[in-house]
Amino acid sequence: MQYIWEYRLWNPATLSTNDGRRVRIIDPGRRNTDAGPDFFNAKIDIDGTTWVGNVEIHYRASDWHRHGHDHDKAYDSVILHVVDKDDAPVFRTDGQLIPQMVMHCSPHFNERYAQLVGAPTELPCKAQIRALDSVGVAEWVQAMSLERLIAKGRRIELLYEAYRGNWEQICFVTFARNIGFGTNSDAFELLAKSVPLQLMHKHSDSLFQLEALLFGQSGLLDGPNPGGDAYFDQLAREYAFLRTKYSLRRPDGLVWKSFRMRPQNFPWRRIALLAHYVEGGFRLMADLLEADSEEALRGLFTVMLSGYWSTHYNFSHPTAERGAAISKAMIDVILINTVAPLYYVYGSKTGNYELVQRAIDLLEGLRAESNRVVNLFVAAGMKVDSALASQAVLQIYNEYCLQRKCLFCRIGRKILRAANSE
Question: Which tops the pLDDT comparison, 106 or 23?
């Protein structure tokens, strides 16, 4: 009933008080999530007289008395009591009668809602998506893609506060997290935060020392030497020296995963990649801001590892394979999860709204991600033709579908609105 009231799903022709006065709802008010009446600051016309105040909603009118509202002055501001069962009159604490209106929920609405939230499938509205207005769905996709971009930006905003606007440090931590590609994201973020970029810049002329710092802080140099690898021993000795020199503390809780992972995505390779970007001085943020095309952006991530890591995936398994450190598919992921959010937050913080738009344009120009969730929506008939759209459906799935918040999803509302009018 609160949902129907909030989203104006009532039939205007049927609205009247229980004593026959015509009701016109000008503004249903703002939903109250704390103690007190259900909706604040409503504006309601009752038989030509406009009332401004609060609205309380109950299944049975007698709940007003059961909940003690007739003795609570907080409810004296109620201008309309909305009920499904009119089984008692209600009064303010001074004895004044409060206007009461019966508002029934359509049985179709209840049935459709139960079908949605109780559906065993991952996408409960799958059968209805094809029939929805394509323009409305497109607007919802646009809104959700922006919501997801903002959500990703919040993590960057926290880094902005922590590092006092040092954008290269912010970019370093963000990039490190995202090359963990979900499986090792938290570990990479902890690692990147454990070694200040300023400290690594002191050794930016030595790739060996940078690798010693990062591998040492990662904990991957602990324990016995796998296979008696000479480079492992060299890094371990160098890290022991640097750790003492700078009083470094390794982060707690680091867990590295490589099970069922392609060798090029192993954490060892990704740590070597971080060292590669710091060699000569980390300036990825500056490079991102200077890049004037998608091709230029891709060029920043089309890199080859040199030295030991050009022929190794970890310390115990050498390989003769030599290829790009980041695949083309993974570059897409970096552009979506690192570059676009950095553009968005940097543009917002500096007032450069062309850069904010550039973040959106970048997502719109990239091909849609291909994963299980995106494929669910595509199979249901939704058009997902860009990264902007695939990011949107991921946001819809995570924030609404998984939590069965169909009442608050715009697609769910369209389906339920149609059910309430049946």
Answer: 23
Q: Which of 358, 359, 355 is nearest to 337 (CA)?
A: 359
> 144 with 395: CB under 8 angstroms?
yes
The answer to whether 138 and 124 are in contact (CB under 8 A) is no
pLDDT tens, position by position, 358-399: 999 999 999 999 999 999 999 988 889 999 999 999 999 999
Q: Please report how many Cα atoms fall inside a 13 Å half-sphere around the Cα of residue 363, on the Cβ side.
A: 28
Give me the pLDDT at residue 100, please: 97
Q: At 205, is the secondary structure helix, strand, or coil?
A: coil
Closest CA to 70 of 92, 46, 89: 92
DSSP single-letter state for residue 224 = S
State the Cα–Cα distance between residues 289 and 319, nearest whole angstrom.
36
Distance, in Å, from the CA atom of 309 to the CA atom of 317, rounded to the nearest integer, reads 11
Task: Look at the alpha carbons of 404, 405, 411, 415 in this order and tell me if their dihedral is positive or negative.
Answer: positive
Q: How far is 275 from 235, CA to CA, in rounded Å?
A: 13
Torsion of CA 256, 196, 271, 159, to 10 degrees: 70
d(CA 392, CA 190): 28
Q: Are 28 and 3 in contact (CB under 8 A)?
A: no
pTM: 0.81
Query: Exposed (0-12), middle (13-18) or buried (19+): which is 278, by Cβ within 10 Å?
Result: buried
What count of other Cβ atoms lies within 10 Å of the Cβ of residue 106? 16
* 3-class DSSP state of 179: coil
Q: Are 156 and 343 in contact (CB under 8 A)?
A: no
Neighbours of 148 (CB within 10 A): 24
* Per-residue pLDDT, 95: 94
User: What is the DSSP pairing of strand 78-85 with strand 100-102?
Assistant: parallel
